[in-house]
């Protein structure tokens, strides 16, 4: 009997790839992670992750998956200054249906800067003896046939094209976690397979973000502030999020849809926050904060879902996950949580169906990954499909029915704590969407809010004083 360890190659050294590598190593595999960039030694920015300049949070459903894969990860983040923010206790949010109350905790979020989160995960994952990192290299294609993938062809990234020799890494499993730029569909067609069904819902949102030093008295325990857009009511994508992160800083992301002139420089950033959103609260808070960076812009916000799990034929020993399967509008903050839950699903399927190389294993994994992204996908497109030009054909009947019910729930949540906590649990990906269809929730939605609407942001007197807001 052979004592050879199974081998896996993971393409992509960002959060999805690193967590996938950890899940595979936990099943006994030797893992090679192939990354295009040279990864920084500390919590620093890198070229291949430009979206790190914008607001990020890890919802509790993802945080629990992260901790199960990497015990101690949450403790390291907390030690680095990341707060544990109870929801909706420490969130001040204006929905299209009014201000939410700050109900007792059900879910939570970890609002870390992306550079810090990736660094903590990278440290823990690469401490594993069975995980090797190959930097400054990119995948150029799969090795194998339409029935069986046997490895991946990679090439070193160098300024001299003649030095970029290609080599093949043999593997019992190849995982594509290369994100929005994934070439998985092309690689599959090169093997003779058809491409997957794809749906794209592009809200057209443009993000503008800036980092601030919070007023000294507001550097600990200040709530998240979220002014949501109202695409169906006000017909605009204008909104913003103020997220307290480590080291007494605030990351502020402002956004707008097609036709909204989002801010491009420092002066316009403050004006947009104060005058263009549905409420000026974020602009008022920034009046006493110290800017630390210039404005960073991104237009890569479309939702794109590739239904690999529905393909009639799927090769053995190949899996796609993370943004390569389901890229989500970052405004909802679900991408990292979905990546963590998908990595956990990979581990669990291998433990049930493995070992690597077992017939049908990659198909089982791909179907499990498809299930982990379903709730986040429905939540994102349920709102984004109503932006003008988001899809060629406009919202489907299913989109309209789903949106109408979710809208009723959100309206009810402004004045019903039980419904608010149930919605938050689903939003945090710690409960499935079926929790919103329980008979008690259906009855509560029919009744509507039990308390009258709030007429002002639910900031406490102490919070206003700490931030210097009248």
How is the secondary structure organized here?
Blueprint: E1 7-11, H1 15-25, E2 30-34, E3 58-59, H2 60-69, H3 73-79, E4 85-87, E5 91-95, E6 98-99, E7 107-110, H4 114-126, E8 131-134, E9 137-144, E10 149-156, E11 166-170, E12 173-176, H5 184-190, E13 197-201, E14 206-213, E15 224-227, E16 239-245, E17 249-256, H6 266-275, H7 281-286, E18 290-291, E19 296-298, E20 303-307, E21 318-320, E22 326-327, H8 335-353, H9 361-384, H10 397-413, H11 417-427, H12 439-447, H13 461-467
Parallel strand pairs: 1-2, 1-12, 2-8, 5-15, 12-21
Antiparallel strand pairs: 3-7, 4-7, 5-6, 9-10, 10-11, 13-20, 14-17, 14-18, 14-19, 15-16, 16-17, 20-22
Structural write-up:
- The protein is α+β, with helices and mostly antiparallel strands.
- The chain has a domain at 7-48 and 116-200 and 302-381: FAD/NAD(P)-binding domain (3-Layer(bba) Sandwich), CATH 3.50.50.60.
- 32% of the residues lie in helices and 22% in strands.
- The protein contains 13 helices and 22 strands.
- Strands 5, 6, 14, 15, 16, 17, 18 and 19 form an eight-stranded mixed sheet that branches. The protein has a five-stranded parallel sheet with strand order 8-2-1-12-21.
- The relative contact order is 0.16.
- The model has no long low-confidence stretch (mean pLDDT 93).
Provide a compact summary of the structure.
The protein has 470 residues and is α+β, with helices and mostly antiparallel strands. It contains 13 helices and 22 strands. α2 crosses α8 (335-353).
